[in-house]
Structure formats: C-alpha cells, structure tokens
Amino acid sequence: MPRFERRVLLGSLLVATPPLLASLALAWIPMGEPLRWTCVTVAVAAALLLARWQYHRVVFPLYTLSGLLEALRQGDYSLRGVHGGVLGDAIYDINALAERLQRERLEFEESSYLLGKTLAALDSAVFVFDEGQRLRLLNPAAQRLLDAERHRLFGLSAAELGLAPLLDGPAARLLRHVFPGRSGRFEIRHAALRSGGRGGRLLVINDVGRVLREEERAAWQRLLRVLGHEVNNSLAPIQSMAGTLATLVARDPLPEDWREDFRGGLELIGHRAEALGRFLSSYSKLARLPPPQPRGVELSALLAKLAKLEQRMAVTVEAGEPLTVAADPDQLEQALINLVRNAVEASLPDGGVRLRWCRDGECAVIEVEDDGPGPPPSDNLFVPFFTTKPGGSGIGLALARQIAEAHEGGVALVARDDARGALARLWLPNRVAPGEQG
C-alpha cells in the first residue's frame, strides 16, 4: 500500500478511536449520568480535534500539489514544493518534472533564437504559410524581396503576395521572375509542413543570378590580376630596354660597341614579346575550347601513341583490360599530353613516368605516375596561369581539367602514397558513343 494511503488510513482510524472508546465505556462501564455525558463530550471533542488534524494532513498537501500543477499549466517552471510530508514523493516528482520542463524550454528558446539568427543571416528568402496559404513567417531576405514592411505582410495570402503560382509548380525549378524588390533568375523550392496537427507550406527562393554574377565578377578579378601580372612582367623590361636604347641613340658620338648593345637590347625585347605572345596564345586556347565531339576511343591505343610522342625519356605503358570510352579523341589526347609533359619535366633526368588505365565503377580512370618531387603544396594548381615552373604558362593542368569536365569527368593531382612522386588521375564516364574508334 502506498505511503500516502497508509497515512490516510491511519489518520482515519485515529479519528474514529475516541467515539469508539466512548461507546465501549458507555456500554460496559457502570457510571453515573454526569460522568457518562462527560465521557461522551471528551470523546466528541477528541474526535473533532483528530478530524481537524487529519484534514490538515490530507488537504494542505493537496493544495500544495494543486498549486504546483497550476504553475506548470501556466508555464511557470520556477515554483518548487518542499519535500517531505504525506505527499513528499509526489512533490519530488513534480519538482523533477518542473526542472525538466524548465530545461527543455530554455533549450527551445535557445534553438528558436539560433533559428531566428540563422534565418536572418540567410541570403535565401524563406516564407512559411499556414493551411489557408496565409503568411505566418518570413525572414529579412524575404522582406527585401517583397519590398514591404513585415507587419503589412503577415496574414496576407500567397495569392495577395503574388507567390501562389510558385507554390503550385514543381517542388524545385529555375525560372525568371519579377518581384517587387528584385527581378532576375531564381531557384524556387517548396515543401509541405505540419505544425500543431495542421498543414502548411514552406517556400524558399534563391537569387541564383546574383550568385552567378558575384562568381563571374570574382573570376574576372582573378583573371585580370593574372593577366596584369604577366603583361607587366613582359612590358616592364621592354620599356626599360627601350629607354636604354633611346638614351644610347641620343649620345653623340655613338660608342664603338653600340651595335652589340642595340642587338642585345632588341633580342631582349623580341624575347619578352615572344613570351607575351605565347602567354596570350595559351589564354586564347583555354578560352576558346570547343565543345567535345565524342566517339569511341580505345585507351590502350591512345596511351601507346602518347608514350611514343614523348622524346625526352621513355614512358612506360602498363597493360590493362580492353576499355573503350566515349570522348573527343583530339581533346582527350591534348589533356593527357599536358599531364604526361608535366610528369616528364618533374622526373627528369633520372626518374620515370608510367601510364595505366582501369575501370572504377561507372568511370574509366587514366593514371599518370611519376618519380619526381611530388606536387607543390598549393591549392592553385588548377587555377589558369598559375605555375611553379620557371617559364611555365600555367595552362596545362587548367586545360586538362576543362577538357575532362566538358566530358563530365575530372582531374586530380596528388602525392603518391607508396613512394616519392606525383599521381595525376583523369576520369571519364564509362560509356561508349556510337561511331568510329580512335
């Protein structure tokens, strides 16, 4: 039997004891009438006192319990009851419940604050509609997109906001649209929500045009920095030598060795002009790469041909399974020539270069392994015009990656795990296009 029930039973028995004793006394003990009424009075008074005592023991803890439960119902989780008494166990459990609810509300408030800050920091416009498609939540980006004050937007329907067509279309799509605050190309995503047993809709709008413009601007800035650096590297010595030659011509009489000075100066100007021309030609090749024209290319024949093209050292072609891929043979050969040339230049004079190919799931992988010092520690290896080699153009790796990505593949350059050197990997989708094999 629970502790509270035992105490209630004991208190009830104590309340019933004085009348019971008085009844026994009246029934069995011979006494006079005054004494009999005195006993009855004492018994009744004792019963009333015990009843009051029992009332306080039962009712007051229930009042405490009721007050704690009311505080919980009102959301006040700071109120606590004193342990002990007939309902000590129940009060202890309610205190523990209040602590847990208080902790959970604090976590919820912190999560809500973090969610609000996250939504406010998003560049994406976020709208939340209820089951009647009336706006219930939006972030600052959404407010800017609609170009209106927040209090004027809440409660309006999606149709009144001009967003109903976006909720009726596919769950994810790209389109051009004109909003009150901005126009351009947007990514539209929407999904169903449920809150409090009721449905709703979530609408997220991303301005992809702005992102693309920012990336394009950043790309132009990087390109202009590289172009400016390379052009200045050539124009500065040309300008300096031209000034020197102008000074030499102005001398009267001319020095005896003026022809040699002129010849050396003109050779320097020609050399730098030639280097600048090669650089601009490399840029033109990278910028004007045509779309690939894929046809079947047998890798063993292609790699054997590449190995014969290299004259500075013998390139080993490791045997592999017959494998034909769909690729533009000229572009793929150009990409691999750049990878092989880098490997050979890194391995000269005493190293070696090995070519191999394999099938890796849905991809065909071509590997170029060398015994050189390994790739330089830089994240810019595939950035156009970036080079760590004296006289390098910085085009080879960038062109190889551009060709591979045009074929829905990719290129990676990593350090070898088994020895000193680098490993270049070019992968393409493992599918064959109809047509002549190259």
Automatic annotation (TrEMBL):
From the Swiss-Prot or TrEMBL record, what is one GO molecular function term? kinase activity
As recorded in UniProt, coiled-coil segments are: none
Which residue numbers delimit the Histidine kinase domain? 226-432
**What is the catalytic activity of this protein?**
ATP + protein L-histidine = ADP + protein N-phospho-L-histidine
Q: What is its EC number?
A: 2.7.13.3
Respond yes or no to whether keyword Transferase is given for this record.
Answer: yes
Q: What class of enzyme is it?
A: transferase
Gene3D superfamilies for this protein = Histidine kinase-like ATPase, C-terminal domain, PAS domain
Pfam families on file: HATPase_c (PF02518)
| SUPFAM superfamilies, alphabetized | ATPase domain of HSP90 chaperone/DNA topoisomerase II/histidine kinase (SSF55874), PYP-like sensor domain (PAS domain) (SSF55785)
Q: Does the keyword Kinase apply?
A: yes
Q: Which InterPro entries match?
A: HATPase_C_sf, HATPase_dom, His_kinase_dom, PAS-like_dom_sf, Sig_transdc_His_kin-like_C
Designated name of the protein: histidine kinase
Keywords assigned by UniProt?
Kinase, Transferase
* Organism per entry: Rhodanobacter hydrolyticus
